[in-house]
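Researcher: Please translate sequence to structure tokens.
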Amino acid sequence: MGVLFFFRLLVRRLWPRHPALLASLWVLVQLVYLRKFHGPHFANDSFRYLEYAANIAERGYFEPGHNLRYVLYPLFQSFWLWLGAGWWGIVAGQMAVSALATRAVYQGTRRLAEGRREAAALATLLFIAWPDIQQFNVFLLTESLFISLVALSFGAFTRVRHGGRKAWALLLLLLALTALARPNGFMVGLAAGLAGLDALRRRRDSRPWRAALFLLVLLSPLLWQALNHQLATYYLMDTYQRGELIFRYQLWAVHQAEPLNMPPPGTGPAARVLYFAFHNPIYLGRLMLGKLFVFVSYLKPHYSLAHRLVGVAVLWPAYVLAALGARQAAIWRPARVFLAAIFLLQTAIIMLTVDDWDVRFLAPVLVVVFVLAALELTARWQRRAG
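Model: Translation complete:
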């Protein structure tokens, strides 16, 4: 009881200064990772981004092919290289955008909590303190910018509830930038579109809803072409045949019980996936369930036992709280649909493609989990206090 009383007293004393404390913690975390990695960290894919960025900065050349799907990040890097700031400039830029993203998490969560700060403080604390988010700010990889853009898009989305044209323009700009940051960046814009469709469906006047559905039908050939374009540079059938749950990692793999029925040559990328699913449903189901477990469980084979235990202790309860928060009627429904759709779309993408050995694919959507979990948890605290 004495320890609990002391903790409550400490929280009360520090609460008026919590924005400054969160900002100080954010700065401390950046310094910790700069020290840990001895400055900007050159990782496995850094070379191709830096090479692409150098070509843009020196010759204005944009390389075609798969790398073009990450074009925003080499363009971001090229700006700092053009200024002569080098790797340190890139990392400083990533940290600046991350600071704005952290502020957006706080403000966006507070808007959804109707001005109350407890949920905003908790979601921001998790966003800052979770080790597999802020560390990417010192990596020369797309993850830092992508994580920040997802968080900024969330903040911008909460603005449109009471905002005007500027709020909508900011949201559309951020959704476009997010789509250019990574091949799966389109999912944030798609999540916003689904939230919009849900809002139209619930209106008394059904004409806008029917018009939206009719427009989707008209656009379906273009959407099919866009899907084929997105899948064109991925070798999904190869990973399916190898049974990979984690890219290029065979110790965790699904083994074939019988020969697979593969798509005939000349089949389009999206049609190949449908053909494979239709002719190998049990195998693909096992494969997708395995990827789902690997993606959300945080039990990656390369992690230490302590890393896994922290993930299980924090993320697993957070998933449950986030799922409950997504159903909480007191939270603005379009935001709930938007946040839930981001996580579910990213999960579906991983289940159809393949996961990575670390959390590069999970980290960008953890902000969604933290926001919804914080809103649910603080609502429970308030009900008990009341």
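Researcher: Any highlights?
Model: Strands lie at 244-246, 249-253.
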